[in-house]
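User: Predict structure, ligand S-adenosyl-L-homocysteine.
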Amino acid sequence: MAQRIIGIMGALPEEINGVVNLLQNKKEHRFGKRIYYTGTINNQDVVVVYSRIGKVAAAATVSTLILKFNITELIFTGVAGGIASDLKIGDIVLGTELVQHDMDATPLFPQFEIPLIGKSHFKTDSEFLKLGENSIQHILENSYLHQVIDTEDLDQFNIHHPKLHLGLIASGDQFFKDSEQKNNLLSNLPDTKCVEMEGAAVAQVCYEFGIPFIVIRTISDEADQHSTIDFMKFTEKISNIYSIEIIKNIIK
Ligand code: SAH
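Assistant: Predicted complex:
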């Protein structure tokens, strides 16, 4: 069997730095203005990188992971704005499907369809979903979270009984910061759980190369007028720790 190499990707340094610190035999490689870290986590070969924000950055980064580092599977971890009304800050969304909400080549192709691929929604890997579900349920148990995050920080963001949600993630080159954007998205793609800026680009590239992948997003804001408040504090204090714990529990 071919050697497994897992790519681990986020958009922002704050989402991925903690995971980089987990690496054994860490080595740094520079390509296309990004730093890729190779090494092992629990004896599993991994390559860890942050792409920066947006679909192009994400697509370039995942292509490099596939073509230069020969990854055989990919885990994306980061933050997102909550769209479904039952989502709260601190909840986690495991993407079952991803769609590019800003793709619109109508009338040549149906809205959201990626031209000449004939698809708008890209499914994540079912084995990864099962593994992700078990690992995340375990992390979201209250006693576990309180062991790894200060109660003060959890309280600051009102994180009391965070939940796991499975469903559709929408991505595009827009930061959602008002209710109009949110309502507009909901009227076009009513099943959307959360919105972010990279996942569906990663999904398309992985689909094209046949790489199994999963996208895991912690809700950092509610994709409305409050969404920029304490964003950096959230990524540093909460989502960074979530990423570390998720990766440690998935790669065992
Ligand atoms: N204030 C931050 C902005 C980060 S952009 C800064 O100064 O750096 C938001 C990042 O988090 C993107 O990588 C995106 O994937 C995700 N994200 C979180 N909330 C989002 C929202 N409301 N709309 C779109 N993307 C969001």
